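#struct-queue
[09:14] JT: dropping the first one here, sequence first, then the structure tokens:
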Amino acid sequence: MKLGRYCELHYFTNRGLLEASHSVFISDPEALVMLPPDEDGLCVFIPAGAIRDPATVVKDEDLTWEEFNEAALRMIAAMKVYGWPTDRIDMHIDFWSALQNHRWRLAPDTLKQRALLLYQAQQRRDWHLYGNTPHGWSLAKINQKVLYLARDELFDEQLVSITLQAPAITSSGSSGASHSRSVSAQKRSASPTERTGGARKRAHTIFPCCAVCLGRFPHRVIECSRSRTWDDRHQTFAERIDKALWSKDGKLLLCAAWQREEGCTRRKRHARHICSGCGSISHGAQQCPRVQES
């Protein structure tokens, strides 16, 4: 902070300040700290820097909104204490105020709320890297196109977590032998009611298809690089470039929201409403006739 460098908001949250208050000698990593006695009753001294746990630092995008609000006010105060230029302080005030007053802040769709935090984290990190270069920019005004990409990134991550929960399927469409035996054993031990309920639940579980290969099998859809569709019958129409969807000729940025089951309702859009599976303008990937049947 003193040098105007990037610093995680975590350190300015209530949780971060509490952790800092418990970190003895944290400012002097070479100071010796005594560990609890071992089995032989001997005490061991190690450098304080060796006990610091970087895993306890929460990334900006993983903060709650309450923690974000705590940290933003304190960081602004710290900027003033350390003599940051007034224009930079005002830019951060405008930036964080715009996020807090954005229409997505109280949206019922939690992905939109999380997208604001992800956008904040990405933009602030990038600004500290490039802010003082000819390619620098002001954070004060929210770039709605980049914000949409942040939401699409979260949606794709959610899609990955859903598909990875599905049982592994072989190319013949059946699970492995060991999986089949375990399922059979479960069926034998389950009551008729449980078996009926479980079968009904599985029958109604439909996993979204990948926007690139149109397959429903478990794989990291956000990184899918297949050149042909799931059944090897067609060339894939789209590809992932930095997690965004582009037509393979590189000319069209495709709307990721359009590929979802519910489609896209944006009146102003920066990407094309074209199916990433076949290139049709009449539907998205989830309704594509080439999609793997559920």
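[09:21] JT: and here's the second one, same format:
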Amino acid sequence: MRPMNPIGGFIAALATAIALAAPATGAAQLPDETPVHRLRATRPELEQHLSQLRLLAQSGKLGKLSPEWVRAETSYVVRRLEEGDFRVGDRLLIAVEEPGGAGGGPGGAADRNAVKSPEQQLTDTFTVGASQELTLPGVGVVSLHGVLRTELEPFLSGEIARYIKEPVVHARPLISLAVTGGVNKAGYYTVPADAVISAVLIAAADRAQR
């Protein structure tokens, strides 16, 4: 028998406790699998989970859950909603399309020596600073305080639109994963937050021969 996932066990217990604590009519129900611990949880998902946690705490009917766990889970969700997902050292991949779809790829010596357009300057990998800020060329300092990963692209589009007319912005948060064990290329890999794990393993090359 496979061991139970600890987080999955907590989620199941939380769902049961809320079902017992909720009023008979109009009761808010926690889904079987809450997405709040996913990297790309949305603000409505977090807010819904927070409301259910507070309802549970007020009822006092915690079932198999401890008061400490409910408080810790509530603090986690509140902190994520208020502070956002980005911390110092996080890396973001940003690409801003050229007007009319003009390409920004490498060319001859003239291309390499040409002055970069604002869109080209903003197409790069950027690192989050100590105050949850990004420093973007031609834009300046942009605070990411309170921004979730799922809000990054529309948020940056709005900030860049203050300096570039109707920009088309693509932004993806990157995370570092450690790959160890039976692979030929163990180490740290920087991948998008929504990357499929199997793709990361392929990047680490074939499994070592047994």
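[09:30] RK: nice, looked through the second one.
[09:31] RK: The helical segments are 6-21, 43-59, 67-83, 109-113, 118-121, 152-160, 197-203.
[09:31] JT: good to know. Strands lie at 91-96, 124-127, 133-136, 140-143, 169-179, 187-192.
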